[in-house]
């Protein structure tokens, strides 16, 4: 079911990307030199779809990195909590094995 839902979302997105790429194959000049408009030394001729898709990919990467950095404190707290749980589990296990069952008081129902 999960694979079906994933395909239900990804197939239309892939189809839209292909249609966009086919419709926008015209070359555009991408200049990385803002001071020389007439003779740009750092310029490339790329198809428009490549420029747009590269901008989207860079935006997704930057957004993912920012999200990962922002969640760092939560990951750190989760690691700390996992270590504490393991410490408490081992302490509980040590205490259970140290006390014999016969040393515990008998359970009573509390009714007289």
Automatic annotation (TrEMBL):
<feature type="transmembrane region" description="Helical">
    <location>
        <begin position="49"/>
        <end position="70"/>
    </location>
</feature>
<dbReference type="InterPro" id="IPR010445">
    <property type="entry name" value="LapA_dom"/>
</dbReference>
<keyword id="KW-0472">Membrane</keyword>
<keyword id="KW-0812">Transmembrane</keyword>
<dbReference type="Pfam" id="PF06305">
    <property type="entry name" value="LapA_dom"/>
</dbReference>
<keyword id="KW-1003">Cell membrane</keyword>
<protein>
    <submittedName>
        <fullName>GMP synthase</fullName>
    </submittedName>
</protein>
<feature type="domain" description="Lipopolysaccharide assembly protein A">
    <location>
        <begin position="44"/>
        <end position="91"/>
    </location>
</feature>
<feature type="region of interest" description="Disordered">
    <location>
        <begin position="75"/>
        <end position="112"/>
    </location>
</feature>
<dbReference type="GO" id="GO:0005886">
    <property type="term" value="C:plasma membrane"/>
</dbReference>
<keyword id="KW-1133">Transmembrane helix</keyword>
